[in-house]
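Fold this sequence, please.
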Amino acid sequence: MNYQSPISPGRSWYEDTAGPRPEYKAFDGDRTCDVVIVGGGFTGLSAAAHLAKAGANVVLIEAHRFGDGASGRNGGQLGTGQRAWAEEMEAEYGFSRAKALFDLAEEAKAHLIEFATVNRIEIDYMPGQMSVAHKKRHVDDYKAHAEIMANRFGYPHISFMEARETAERLGSTAYFGGTRDTGTGHIHPLKLLIGTAKVAAEAGAQLFEQTPATGISSVGGKVKVTTPSGTVSAEKCLVGVNAYGGALEPVSAAHIMPIGSFIGATVPLGADTNVLPGGEAVDDSRFVVRYFRKSRDGRLLFGGREIYAVNDPKDIHIHIRRQIAELYPDLRNVEITHGWGGYVGITMPRKPFVREVMPNVISVGGYSGHGVMLSNFFGKLYAETVSGNRDRLKLIEDLKIPAFPGGRRWRTPLLFLALNWFALRDRI
């Protein structure tokens, strides 16, 4: 019988193509360690791998199975730089800091590919990403962005596309122009996650699934994480639960909001299709972004229905097919073999959240749709922090991330109203 994640709707195409997905036992008893990690997604497993390789005694607990959250179910696009464009970061923080943040993200990209290569993890990497304008008024911004990236930030891999080139490369006339980035690509995220867990386990990290954290406390220089079946005592703690934190840790919950994002996978489109002939991934300029790419076997993986509440939809296939048909009318009746969802953690400014939320407890998340690349690298940066070098993680810690307004009672309905207003603007 196929496993169904209890926290994310639908069974993903990734689950059916990732190969063996090892199960790890549940935690039982009490343990003492150097570092306890809460959350078995990219952030936590990457940190566990790097810490264990450095000789630390690590215990990681995951409430469900590794990959049940966004890390195992996302769009697989790496992107370039931070979630916000480099010129936007420069306007807010100045050039030197914006350049440092961009360079850090570029290192994150290189690190992900190198980590997979060195550890022989087959991640199905495919090169290329296009960012496209769904309204004419955005086209000049894309053109300027390509020039700024090459001339100011030393990144020559982004080229501007007029409407005609955009249509040829997408196989769709629904967009007005955009950019093509040959310095990045897209991957099979669940294969990377399974491989990272294996690397961590082989390095000596103690990994436990089906083990929820019921509380975190920090007293007298020691951290305690409680579970239904025992307590972990540690010198330090990493909270890497992102959108799935619930009420576990209130500071993170006030700054990171879950957004439901949903993906459909079609049948293979065949060799004669005009859809994405170059194999690039795509994201568009909508606030409620549409993102899509082809898999290695020629399926269209299309994400685009976001909801700003945590109710699971029962009709993923219908909505995804409708959005596909808007861009590719010939696919209006295409068979969708898989429909699934998960929850992405966003922050108010769409920049990552890193903060010491209590003594010796650091929370990392809020990647805002840019997490495949950043989360794996932030796990490495956390391991560096434990070893005594906090400088690089500090670049992210120092970002201005306000809490969502309204407190716990009102922030979800307020966000729902605000983000649906932006979704309405996408159509106007």
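The longest helix spans residues 95-118. The first strand starts at residue 31 and ends at 38.
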